[in-house]
Description:
This protein has about 210 residues and is an alpha/beta fold. It contains eight helices and seven strands, in the order αααβαβαβαβαβαββ. The chain has helices at about 1-10, 15-30, 40-50, 65-75, 85-100, 115-120, 140-150, 180-190, and strands at about 55-60, 80-85, 105-110, 125-130, 150-160, 195-200, 205-210. A seven-stranded mixed beta sheet has the order 3-2-1-4-5-7-6, sandwiched between helices. α3 (about 40-50) runs parallel beside α4 and α6 runs parallel beside α7. The longest helix has 14 residues, at about 40-50. It starts with a helix and ends with a strand. S-adenosylmethionine binds near residues 83 and 84.
Amino acid sequence: MKLINHYMDSTFHLEDKLLEEVLASIRAHEMPSISVSRSSGKLLTMLVSISGAKKVLEIGALGGYSGICLARGFGKEGQLTSLELEDRYAQLAYRNLSIAGFSDQVTYMTGAALQSLEKLAEEQQRFEFFFIDADKENYENYLNACLVLAEPGALIVADNVLAGGSVADSEAQPKRHTDTMRKFNETMAHHPQLESLLIPIGDGMTIAIVKK
Ligand SMILES: C[S@@+](CC[C@H](N)C(=O)[O-])C[C@H]1O[C@@H](n2cnc3c(N)ncnc32)[C@H](O)[C@@H]1O
């Protein structure tokens, strides 16, 4: 998987000065280097753009790498709501989104995402695009919460669903999230409200359309 991802990233010339600086800022703040892969980020931009989504929800901001990719997809006309546990991560993400030109188009909600999702539901907010990329144990809970907030036809995208490829290899030593991701993929694949598929990009992304 590493080889294929390296090939994709290098062949498609995804050099992007601003995003490289975001990654450098994450390292400088001694935050984990767990942003989406370069190709995954580009896919997010393309999916938001193709779908025409203007109201986007992200679960797991870190330093704003995927947030910038999502916002680039809607350009001048959308709004990103981003949920992040750590206040200092959200602050860096906001700084990076501002450098990218999206300061007026992003709102960070800090604290446990499940609580923020409850608040958004109470406010009867609705979204057209969801990106799930936080604590893996809660992916099923996040999916259920996203379905409450979803406009018909919304897209729900989840990252790291291959758990380093381990979900597909019954002989490999299971990783920390192998079983969680296998179960989550089964749920996505068979969910009556979703049309889903898994794209082996980065650490794997499941993409689902909420049926109308
Ligand atoms: C993989 S990183 C997100 C990377 C980001 N999406 C990107 O590609 O730029 C996961 C993030 O989820 C956050 N997180 C973990 N548990 C969370 C929770 N319960 N609620 C909200 N955010 C959480 C972490 O602090 C971390 O910033």
